[in-house]
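Okay, any thoughts on this one?
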Amino acid sequence: MSDLLRLATAGSVDDGKSTLVGRLLFDTKSVLADQIDAVTRASVDKGLSTPDLSLLVDGLRAEREQGITIDVAYRYFATPKRSFVLADTPGHVQYTRNTVSGASTAQLVVLLVDARKGVVPQTRRHAAVLALLGVPKLVLAVNKIDLVESPAQVYADIAAEFGSLTRSLGWSDADVVSIPVSALHGDNVAARSENTPYYDGPTLMEHLESVPVDAEPHRVGLRFPVQYVIRPRTADYPDYRGYAGQVAAGSVQPGDEVVVMPSGIRTTVERIDTADGALDSAHGGQSVTLLLADDVDISRGDTIVSPGDAPEPISEFDATVCWLAEKPLRPGARLLLKHGTRTTQAIVGAIVERFDEQELTTAPSPDALELNEIGKISVRVADPVVADDYSVNRRSGSFLLIDPAGGNTLAAGLVGDAIAVVEHAGQPAGV
């Protein structure tokens, strides 16, 4: 079991995500006393009798004033059993793009539902996005369970409806856990509640501490996008040539044979350097500098990979994208594509289909993709990219589409037909 869990929250507006995150931070003693004092004073000013724990995480002034989460906020906390990196994402449909960003690296997502409202369209939208992103584990937190009559029946109905949805999207029942909670009072968050006698499962924190999560569920060889070529040219290092970057997948150690893509040149790793000294090996997520046995032509944007499963450089491919801009995406758009450390010109060919996240169906050949819509497109790039299918590896199978004029991010993309994976994983919802 990994000792670090990357998780995110998602859900609709006013379902209590910020309060839940604040409760997790409070119950794990991950906030300072002066922060608690400030929240208590602000809560009294608002006329509340108990601290509003959502104020611990809604840091932007606009968030506090409107009572909604706008930006993705990363929180770090730990228990004796595990460390956590949590992305608190917005619930408003306007900020679906922020949810995509926050959940893109998550190993588990806590999806909240207001017990009084049940599964709403935004719940279905978020579940579909999380399925496309390949998030391996889900927790359904049925929040505000203390505010409904017949809570046992309400919880059972919501859990059953959500289970039907997640099975349609490809998750197995073993990968989805439902928990009735009250974030405001702390019921079943870190402490087991006597108010839910109908529930005998783990608390949310117990589940987060014990859920087995593989950091790399799909094993692939080395993927090392070169970010920078280091040439000190000093008297102490007259011949030093290192290639700095972050290991996107796999592992590497001195003596390993590698291939430089897209050129296809083969060489051997001679040494692995860091600011703290040399390493015997490097693994996914580590930032290192590789020194190679041969003096080869390598620059930023190249990728060093294992020869056994080296992906072929591609210039044309199909991809699933979530469109994040106000201006619609239309066929023929000329954009920039950023994959790893390589940025190249790209042309969008056809918009093959648009995904309806409510009905779990597709509409063929739409005229455009609007804000927050998900679709399958064809892409042609000026310089080939070394990419895996997203279903094989999330890090090396994802990319961004960027506005060449202003530099704004326009879309998050997944190499391959992620929509087909969702469609064919099970029966459409409601069948």
Remarks:
- Residues 151-168 form the longest helix (18 residues).
- Confidence is low (pLDDT under 50) at residues 60-70, 425-431.
- The chain has three domains: 4-210, 223-309, 314-424.
- The two ends are 36 Å apart (CA to CA).
